[in-house]
């Protein structure tokens, strides 16, 4: 199998609202920045793939306009996934593995501010039995959190500690929407308080992948993708054990995460309670640095937040802060679908 | 594809496409196609390593990311499930993403499926949401494409009758395809030519229907192909290309992205003379005039000459370059699935399993899809023999 690495990562500053700019305008600086880091231009890129959702944009084919930001002329080899950009990265990784391309540009964006993201996400539920009831994303996460509390896996002070750690760490992340320590706040849906929930915000991210020697040319310390896998679980919450995440465990096995310990993990856990589930599924011990960026609790641009986890993990490898990092992305209610990537830096380059 | 592992199509399944499948849910619809593809491949759900699913905008059914709810119906629980969305070309792109998983040896056997259940919502309004500061789609796809058909007619000097010839041919071909949506038994050329004008020069009978339907394929590696109960189709080339929707230099009649995509596929397959080396074509023709336009764009005819192939009967089922033997998009259009149906029908042709619409002796067939404002292209070439390694 070919060696493929993440060689550059860029993201916007994530904000509560960005109504003054279009999606293309939000993406342009990120695309320019990530290409600038490698010296590549659009025409040099072998494959391009993006992730987004029409339901956030409120219009069909919303990604067709975003493509204008890439500057797809002359024509490019390009694809799109209607989900988090982490899955776009997976598609691009596979394309590079076939040998048909040596470099790939992956980007994702989400603007949650134009609507009520809690309402919007109800539309991704079973359209016949569940969606007509409009159970929102916070209520569903609260069900999961309560199941964890009932099972003795966590309690409210432990969840508050996760929130405090994440938001304190985010103080060092200039892109985060919520930075620095803040109050845990009132209940949103019991047992989840404001601090247990992600902020609603807008943002975008982009990554450049490259294979083999191309990666070494483009980056001093490439973040080599040692493995990547993703798995899905049943949709109905009634047939799942919400205190566990077998799909995360399977994906981690597939990605080779358990072969050697990781030193860093970026987990896509929009709710504090979900970090509890993921830590267990991924067997992350106390020595692993988790969500040094502040994670999705500090900035959660829907459809980009998972790609940002991979980007943050790669950036830690790039700057020598990590030798072996795990990145995780999720999709669907209560961690239905999960992706795990394992990234490594070459030791001699440190 | 010049990759690690050759890719074989060993199973194809479709639903009978109709205006409204009120007897099944979306899950029931996709499961029907998937089950047929697995039966064709002689495989069970347990043999599938991953599922790659595609459809056009989620607004068409009013469900955001429907693959989440469809995981159970497609036997994907505990497996990787990837969703692709590249507008009208999505059915083709989805198949290519699935093929890459096998080609890169990430998985051995992949189920790929595309669907649209247009009756659950209203596709016209799904495409017509008012968006500030952006050009609204002009009363459906026909309004967008009609001026480009006009431009083609002016440029090529094609006579007015060519569009109706295509529609008449495709609707007759559809009569031989049990899965096709429109079965117009009394179709005549005169009926096509006297149908109402919708978007001049596009008449009612020269447009595609709105269908409910799904299409699935089972893709596998060399070892999987050896176990296949029926002859496989082998992927010889596959590519996607995109260009911006609107810009000053865009050629809407023959987009560069389409030319580049075809050239890449021919390069991978070692095709130097597509007109002679390809035996059957399933191309994405939602409005009849796109047959002559794409014949030129795909390199089967010189610029301005595509309509002559159509007019002289070359593209008829018994012509020497049959185009859309299945009846094509003009007879069946579950939008998100339409591209995959093109890819799957091309595979059926080289497997010798196309039934009454089989092209005699087809050894190499092209599947073609496009989407957006002639913006996204995906194509594959499949052959009866494995690619030379």
Features:
heterodimer, A: 350 residues, alpha/beta, Peroxisomal Thiolase, Chain A, domain 1, 2 domains, ten-stranded mixed β-sheet, two-stranded antiparallel sheet, 11 helices, 34% helix, globular, B: 389 residues, nine-stranded mixed β-sheet, 11 strands, 17% strand
Outline:
The complex is a heterodimer of chains A (350) and B (389). With 350 residues, chain A is of the alpha/beta class.
Assigned CATH superfamily of the largest domain in chain A: Thiolase/Chalcone synthase
- The total beta strand count of chain A reads 12
Indicate the percent of residues in helices of chain A.
Answer: 25-40%
Count the domains of chain A. Answer: 2
Number of strands of chain B: 11
The whole-number mean of residue pLDDT values of chain B reads 95
Would you tell me which CATH topology of the largest domain in chain A applies? Peroxisomal Thiolase, Chain A, domain 1
**Most residues in contact, chain pair and counts:** A-B, 62 and 68 residues
- Strand order in the largest sheet of chain B: 3-2-4-7-1-8-11-10-9
Largest sheet of chain B: 9 strands, mixed
Strand percent estimate of chain A = 15-25%
**Spatial extent as radius of gyration of chain B:** 19 Å
Query: Helix fraction of chain B?
Result: 25-40%
- Any guess at the CATH architecture of the largest domain in chain A? 3-Layer(aba) Sandwich
Helix and strand element order of chain B: EHEHEHEHHHHEEEHEHHEHHHHEE
Biggest β-sheet description of chain A? 10 strands, mixed
Q: Provide the β-strand percentage band of chain B.
A: 15-25%
For the largest sheet of chain A, list the strands in their spatial order. Answer: 3-2-4-7-1-8-12-11-9-10
Taking pLDDT < 50 over at least 5 consecutive residues as the criterion, the unreliable ranges of chain A are none
Q: Figure out the total of helices of chain B.
A: 14
GO molecular function (chain A): acyltransferase activity, transferring groups other than amino-acyl groups
Organism (chain A): Streptomyces marianii
Protein name (chain A): Lipid-transfer protein
């Amino acid at each position: 199998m070919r060696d493929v690495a993440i060689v550059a990562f860029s993201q916007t500053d994530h904000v509560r609202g960005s109504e003054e700019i279009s999606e293309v305008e939000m993406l342009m600086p990120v695309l320019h920045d990530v290409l600038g880091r490698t010296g590549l231009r659009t025409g040099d890129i072998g494959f391009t793939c993006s992730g987004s959702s029409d339901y956030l944009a409120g219009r069909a084919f919303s990604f067709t306009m975003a493509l204008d930001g890439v500057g797809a002329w002359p024509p490019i080899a390009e694809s799109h996934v209607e989900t988090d950009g982490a899955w776009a990265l997976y598609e691009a990784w596979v394309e590079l593995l076939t040998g048909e391309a040596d470099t790939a540009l992956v980007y994702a964006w989400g603007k949650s501010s134009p609507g009520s993201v809690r309402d919007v996400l109800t539309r991704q539920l079973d359209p016949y039995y569940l969606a007509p009831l409009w159970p929102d994303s916070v209520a569903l996460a609260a069900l999961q959190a309560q199941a964890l509390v009932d099972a003795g896996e966590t309690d409210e002070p432990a969840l508050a500690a996760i929130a405090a750690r994440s938001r304190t760490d985010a103080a060092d992340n200039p892109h985060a929407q919520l930075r620095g320590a803040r109050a845990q706040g009132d209940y949103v849906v019991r047992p989840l308080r404001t601090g247990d929930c992600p902020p609603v915000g807008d943002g975008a991210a982009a990554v450049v992948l490259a294979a083999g020697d191309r990666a070494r040319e483009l980056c001093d310390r490439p973040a080599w993708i040692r493995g990547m896998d993703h798995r899905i679980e049943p949709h109905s919450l009634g047939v799942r054990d919400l205190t566990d995440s077998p799909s995360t465990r399977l994906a981690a096995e597939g990605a080779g995460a358990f072969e050697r310990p990781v030193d860093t993990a970026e987990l896509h856990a929009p709710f504090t309670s979900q970090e509890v589930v993921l830590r267990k599924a991924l067997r992350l011990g106390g020595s692993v640095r988790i969500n040094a960026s502040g994670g999705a609790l500090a900035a959660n641009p829907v459809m980009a937040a998972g790609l940002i986890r991979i980007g943050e993990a790669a950036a830690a490898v790039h700057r020598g802060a990590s030798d072996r990092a795990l990145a995780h992305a999720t999709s669907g209610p209560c961690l239905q679908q999960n992706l795990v990537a394992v990234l490594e830096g070459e030791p001699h380059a440190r | 594809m010049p990759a690690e592992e050759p890719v074989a199509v060993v199973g194809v399944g479709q639903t009978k496409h109709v205006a409204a499948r009120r007897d099944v849910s979306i899950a029931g619809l996709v499961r029907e196609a998937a089950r047929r593809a697995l039966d064709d491949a002689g495989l069970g759900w347990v043999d599938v390593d991953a599922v790659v699913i595609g459809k056009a905008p989620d607004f068409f059914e009013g469900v955001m990311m429907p693959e989440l709810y469809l995981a159970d119906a497609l036997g994907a629980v505990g497996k990787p499930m990837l969703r692709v969305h590249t507008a009208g070309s999505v059915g083709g792109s989805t198949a290519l993403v699935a093929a890459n998983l096998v080609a890169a040896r990430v998985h051995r056997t992949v189920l790929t499926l595309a669907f649209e259940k247009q009756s659950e919502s209203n596709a016209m309004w799904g495409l017509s949401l008012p968006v500030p500061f952006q050009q609204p789609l002009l009363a459906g796809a026909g309004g967008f494409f009609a001026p480009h058909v006009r431009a083609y007619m002016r440029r090529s000097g094609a006579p007015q009758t060519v569009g109706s010839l295509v529609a008449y041919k495709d609707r007759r071909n559809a009569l031989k395809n049990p899965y096709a949506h429109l079965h117009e038994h009394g179709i005549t050329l005169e009926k096509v030519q006297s149908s109402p004008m919708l978007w001049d020069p596009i008449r009612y009978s020269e447009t595609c229907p709105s269908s409910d339907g799904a299409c699935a394929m089972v893709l596998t590696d060399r070892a999987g192909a050896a176990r296949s109960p029926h002859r496989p189709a082998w992927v010889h080339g596959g590519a996607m290309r995109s260009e911006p929707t609107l810009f000053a230099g865009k050629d809407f009649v023959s987009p560069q992205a389409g030319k580049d995509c075809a050239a890449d596929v021919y390069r991978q397959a070692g095709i130097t003379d597509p007109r002679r080396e390809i035996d059957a074509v399933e191309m994405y023709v939602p409005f009849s005039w796109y047959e002559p336009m794409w014949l030129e764009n795909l390199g089967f005819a010189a610029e301005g000459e595509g309509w002559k192939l159509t007019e002289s009967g070359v593209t008829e089922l018994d012509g020497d370059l049959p185009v859309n033997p299945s009846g094509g998009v003009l007879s069946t259009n579950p939008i998100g699935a339409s591209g995959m149906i093109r890819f799957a029908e091309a595979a059926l042709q080289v497997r010798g399993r196309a039934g009454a619409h089989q092209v005699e002796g087809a050894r190499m067939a092209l599947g073609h899809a496009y989407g957006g404002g002639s913006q996204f292209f995906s194509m594959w070439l499949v052959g009866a023999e494995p690619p030379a390694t």
